[in-house]
Structure formats: C-alpha cells, structure tokens
Design brief:
By secondary structure, this protein is an alpha+beta fold. The protein is built from 6 helices and 10 strands, in the order βββββαββααααβββα. It has a domain of about 130 residues: Ubiquitin-activating enzyme E1, UFD domain (Structural Genomics Hypothetical 15.5 Kd Protein In mrcA-pckA Intergenic Region, Chain A, Roll). It is about 25% helix and about 25% strand.
Length: about 200
C-alpha cells in the first residue's frame, strides 16, 4: 500500500505506523461485491439530456449499469432522507414514471412540509396554494441546482427470493450548462488593464 499513518507520542517513547485496512466488501447483485468507494455513474445523452431524463429512463439505465437481469427489479430510490421511488407504491404510476427525475426530486423536497400546517380553501387560486418553503428546503433546492451531480441510494430486489440488495451510490451526472455571456465579458474587461 502506498498510504501509511504514523502516530508519535513524545511524552512516551512511542511510535506507531499503520496501514489502512481494505474497504469492507458488500454483497451485491448476481454475486458481485462492492465497497464504499464504488459508484454507478449515469449520464444523459444527446437524445435524453439529464434535465429531461424521466424516472422510467433512469430506472432502465440503473438496471443496465448494475447488471440486473430480468429477475431483479429496483425496489426503492432515495435522495438523502427523501423517498423518490418505491416499487410497491409507484410501479403503476405512469404520471410519475414519465416525470423528469430532477423535477421528482424537487417535488419530494418541497412536499416534505407538514400537511397539518397547510390549510386549503376551495376558493383559493393556484398561485395562493404555493407552499411556503422553510430555510432548510430553500437551501437544499439551491444546492440541488448548483451541484454537478446528484447521488441516490438505490435498493434492488430479487423477485423470486424477495432478498434485497443495496447498490453502490448511483450518481446522476448533470449536463454542463453554458456560462452566461455577461460573466465572460466582465472577465475580459478585467484582463485588459495592467495592474502595477
């Protein structure tokens, strides 16, 4: 191993040198193992950019990348504490399956509000029904927009045995966004002046 750790205690004549232990391997799908350092990366394509990738398309891509055969299906997808998909709730929900995944994550963060706090009146307009977001929800949504990727926890289930496996974290890599033109112009203006 190329990495070593040293502990020195000068009060006692004690010097200890250690090597890190190998990462613990977790049993995965089809007898494959993975460690905490492994990831499954999902990227958008020219046909399906990340921003418009539906939940159904994401499920198919994860199954292909993880090497899941026909007897294994995705049982749940979560983003932090938010449940995005569960097969026992959403497997027949065509509307959810055709919704872009990023919109589904945003909806999960927004709908976290306690329903006791929301009082709905029949005569309210749609604009008045917009939820009041907490500071924590606003921060999560802001980070979600700024991050270049989103990590999901995905569990799969063997249909025959009912045994559930945890996949390595699934990373959805967002498409690169073009920088605003104004920012580029500001940078070139600064570069024109010599500071002595």
């Amino acid at each position: 191993m190329s990495h070593r750790n040293a502990f020195v205690n000068l009060a006692l004549p004690f010097f200890a040198f250690t090597s890190p232990m190998p990462a613990e391997e977790v049993m995965g799908v089809n007898g494959k193992t993975h460690t905490c350092w492994d990831r499954i990366s999902i990227k958008g394509s020219s046909n399906t950019p990340t921003q418009t990738m539906t939940l159904r398309k994401f499920l198919k891509k994860v199954q292909n990348k993880a090497g899941c055969d026909d007897g294994i299906e995705i049982s749940s997808i979560s983003y932090g504490p938010y449940m995005i998909y569960a097969n026992f709730l959403h497997s027949d929900d065509e509307e959810l399956l055709e919704t872009p995944l990023i919109d589904t994550v945003r909806d999960a963060v927004i709908s976290e509000d306690d329903e006791d706090d929301m009082i709905e009146f029949e005569d309210e307009t749609a604009e008045q029904k917009k939820p009041n977001l907490t500071a924590e929800q606003k921060a999560i949504l802001s980070r979600l927009d700024q991050k270049r990727f989103i990590d999901f926890s995905v569990a799969v289930e063997d249909i025959e045995t009912g045994y559930e496996y945890e996949l390595p974290p699934v990373r959805l890599i967002k498409d690169k966004q073009a920088k605003p033109q104004q920012a580029d112009e500001d940078i070139t203006d600064v570069e024109q002046y010599d500071i002595e």
